[in-house]
Design brief:
Distance between the termini: 27 Å
Strand content: 15-25%
Largest sheet: 7 strands, mixed
Radius of gyration: 21 Å
Helix content: 25-40%
Number of helices: 13
Bound molecules: pyridoxal-5'-phosphate
Length: 434
């Protein structure tokens, strides 16, 4: 198939767009529906990226489109700080209802995942009167000053962008496949939790730490699922030491993992939760949801922003939640996840380069290694596999602190046939490239 239109546009992209804005593929999308993206030359792709975890309910959902169109005709942007509007309050009420935490909660809205994390940190500092923030090894929280500081991977996220925000410290991530302590779960006794306790009694004092921030399942870090006991221990440590627990559910939220929020897998009730990505099916929106008294710590005007919680974002988000609930997309995430897992398990038996398969629901990944014993990351093969898949019409993207993970983030409306076709292509892509 000719790529004539795409190639012209790629020239334009290279001429006018900063190269620092990375492109994982050279596909130029024209339109998308459910789990299929069609490019400018008419080629169709099965999408296993979902706009990096944004299209959980599927591309261009009709309910979202209609809600946005109706809102455009009525009110686009009065700015919530100037004149309020109902959709902001409606969505706040709904998020309070569906997020974990059996206590009174309140909400504030922003525009991006990074912005929600920035705000959660501000709120935690204001409430506790303390400044230190602990984040996890292999974490990703965004590209702004504070969030890139809390992020682990240097290249590309922190490369040459220092100095970083002060008073941030790292704790283990519970990455069992590559345990920092050389242990094996569960015999390890969850040594990572003990390490955090020790740190907070010596090198760091709980008197200086405002919050621990953790993705319940790490996204960019490679879909690292920590032991349940680890996140529960972090919650206990926080409770004992007057530290707040923030879970960053920007990538894990809204049915991605088979539950509305991944914190639910770990039986934890975070003090603050950050949300974005799939919240509004592609409208730029993010939120911080948390304990009411903590959310009320900042004085009027100390948090917010011009566009935060725009009417278009809020009406889209209300439709997203309605669709997840009406169509039981949590169950669907588990069904799709089971289908993918079944295929990945067969591939694990055939291909030694698959070192680990992990994830929850429809948030799954494979970690590729040169040798199952040494676990040396096999980064070089990732592009070969994803490029082969792209040729065959499937979009897979990478992840991982070592860049050796392929992650699967299908829209939760993907059909069984589409999942199986994509898995056929993955199987073939590995076979052709090992
Ligand atoms: N937090 C997590 C867990 C993420 O996965 C991301 C983005 O991938 C962010 C924060 C940053 O979100 P954004 O790119 O919208 O700023």
């Amino acid at each position: 198939m000719s790529r004539a239109i795409a190639l012209d546009l790629i020239d334009k992209r290279n001429k006018y767009v900063s190269r620092g804005v990375g492109n994982i593929t050279q596909v130029i999308a024209k339109k998308a529906k459910d789990a299929i993206i069609t490019d400018v030359d008419g080629k169709e792709y099965i999408d296993f990226a979902s706009g990096i975890g944004v299209q959980n309910i599927g591309h261009c959902d009709i309910g979202v489109i209609e809600a946005i169109k109706k809102q455009v005709d009525e009110l686009i942007h009065p700015c919530f700080h100037v004149t309020m509007y109902e959709a902001y309050m409606d969505l706040a009420e709904k998020l309070v209802e569906i997020t974990p935490g059996s206590f009174d909660k309140k909400v504030m809205f922003a525009n991006s995942g990074a912005e929600s994390v920035e705000n959660a940190v501000k709120i935690a500092r204001k409430y506790t009167g303390k400044t230190g923030i602990l984040s996890l090894e292999s974490a990703f929280h965004g590209r702004t000053l504070m969030t890139m500081t809390l992020t682990s991977k240097v290249k590309p996220y922190k490369n040459g962008f220092g100095p970083f925000a002060p008073e941030t410290y790292k704790i283990p991530s519970g990455y069992c496949y590559r345990c920092s302590f050389g242990g094996t779960y569960p015999d390890c006794g969850v040594a990572c939790a003990e390490r955090v306790r020790t740190l907070l009694k010596g090198e760091l004092s709980s008197d200086m730490i405002a919050a621990i921030i953790a993705e319940p399942i790490q996204g960019e870090g490679g879909f690292v699922v920590p032991p349940k006991e680890y996140l529960k221990a972090l919650q206990e440590i926080c409770n004992e030491m007057d530290i707040l627990l923030i879970t960053d559910e920007v990538q894990t939220g809204f049915a991605r993992t088979g539950k509305m929020f991944a914190s639910e897998h770990f039986d934890i009730e975070p003090d603050l939760i950050t949300l974005s990505k799939s919240i509004a099916a592609g409208m730029p929106l993010s939120a911080v949801v948390g304990k009411a008294e903590i959310m009320d710590a900042p004085n009027p005007g100390e948090i917010g922003g011009t566009y935060g919680g725009s009417p278009l974002g809020c009406v889209a988000a209300l439709k997203v939640i309605e669709k997840i609930e009406k169509h039981n997309l949590n169950d669907r995430a588990n069904e799709i996840g089971d289908l993918i897992l079944k295929r990945l398990n067969v591939m694990y038996e055939k291909y030694d380069i698959i070192g680990d398969i992990r994830g929850r629901g429809a948030m799954l990944a494979i970690e590729l290694v040169k040798d199952r014993k040494t676990k040396e990351p096999y980064k070089e093969i990732i592009k070969k596999i994803t490029n082969y898949a792209l040729e065959k019409g499937v979009i897979f993207i990478d992840a991982g602190i070592f860049g050796n993970v392929i992650r699967f983030l299908p829209p939760l409306v993907m059909t069984e046939d589409q999942v199986n076709r994509a898995m056929d292509v993955l199987d073939e892509a590995i076979a052709k490239n090992i």
